[in-house]
């Protein structure tokens, strides 16, 4: 029997992006409940250009992702966006249609990690929504509350890390994991 898991993930973390791509490739995404969190809520809207030190940190992370997962399509962004609106819109999209919400969320992530778009910008988010005929997509108080609840749950875990997978039996796994580790974690 395959286990199910909750994934705490942040759009601006390259390891989260790569892990989600790997979960899709392994056909494990159906066993995962995504919960968007902000591991760096202090990031600004709009996204600021990274200073030299921050840019070097981003570059190290992306290089590490490419070493761990060479097949992933990822570029070097010019900064990191605040992700609260992207999380809230992803919740709203998933409530309208869970499968479409998943595709919407993955497209938003690629807009940032492949195309370098500022996904803190509601115009960018709404453009992605339009691609999926989600023109009426709005963030309501329920989506805001859900995002707040997920943030508190993740903070309560105490890992301080994203991505974090929490299996249905309570076992946790953090970081970008190998194919073998993920298959073992999900009971394949």
From TrEMBL:
Residues 7-184 form the DSBA-like thioredoxin domain. Pfam families: DSBA. Gene3D superfamilies: Glutaredoxin. One of its GO terms (molecular function) is oxidoreductase activity. InterPro entries: DSBA-like_thioredoxin_dom, Thioredoxin-like_sf. This is DSBA-like thioredoxin domain-containing protein. The lineage of its organism: Bacteria, Pseudomonadati, Bdellovibrionota, Bdellovibrionia, Bdellovibrionales.
